[in-house]
């Protein structure tokens, strides 16, 4: 704990909020904020999905993670990353993690453990994703809504540097989750 | 390099693109895609800023990073994270990094080195951010456009776990960049 950090900070007051743009998947909300020092500002942010999504770190063995290679319409190229997806209505985090793993990697997991929750860009997105470690995998494929078959790519946890060096790996959430799991395996005495 | 990974993958054809929603800061683009297997899908993505933003990892000493504590309108709370910002017109990556560091932390850096580029959510955002390591700091404050003074919080690189455990630290890009710099310091023989 840092001694310089003030324990309490008064949140800005939200004076007004309204939707200023909307599409099928996205909505933009405009906020009028008054900070505790009296300064007023207009912010825009994306409307946040009601529940966090799920990001899975599937270990096919204690030293090897399964990545997927999927087309990213945002970056207009195929990208390596971890399997992930939104929770369906009434579905729990562990259930979503196992479903996405079966759909995207063709495996189920006997052991699933939520590790932490990550945000994308707290300044203008409330989007959250729960990182779930999946172990003790067994082959189990279910059909998802993917437009084409997803390629599954085993990758050594010891070689995160090699992944960063690739042009088709860039997603911060996947990278953060991989470091976290690698550290965890090292703490368990596994040489990765 | 994984032997199972196919070297070439034919990108989907973009049949049509149009803006379906727009606000002051955001725009949503709808894409009609035809995958190489003939399947057609409609995607939505955020319009991407023309140039990458910059994320700074400022080391006040070889074992300590400077975090900032700033209100995140997306998550409606104060969040710890690394200083970052968009590049101004004609501004280079290193220049932006040093400017943001002066505005948000009150330091300039004599050594600035781009490490890698991260994306936010490749599926529906093209947004990119360059991670810049800043070292050899010296006090230098310039005024930014922040609505209130930003709190600067020194944090030991050795205690990433302590940061993850906090409720006010969650941003995947900051976390990925911190792991990356910690690994780099360890590779230099620094005990963090």
Give a description of the structure:
The structure is a homodimer of 192-residue chains. With 192 residues, chain A is of the alpha+beta class. The first copy, chain A, has two domains: 13-46; 53-187, Nucleoside Triphosphate Pyrophosphohydrolase (Alpha-Beta Complex), CATH 3.90.79.10. In chain A, 18% of the residues lie in helices and 42% in strands. Chain A is built from three helices and ten strands, in the order βββββββαβββαα. Chain A has helices spanning 93-105, 160-164, 172-187; strands at residues 13-22, 27-34, 40-46, 53-61, 64-72, 77-81, 84-85, 107-119, 128-139, 151-156. In chain A, the strands form two sheets. In chain A, strands 4, 5, 6, 7, 8, 9 and 10 form a seven-stranded mixed beta sheet that branches. The longest helix of chain A has 16 residues, at 172-187. Chain A is globular. Chains A and B meet through β1, β2, β3, β5 and β6 of A and β1, β2, β3, β5 and β6 of B.
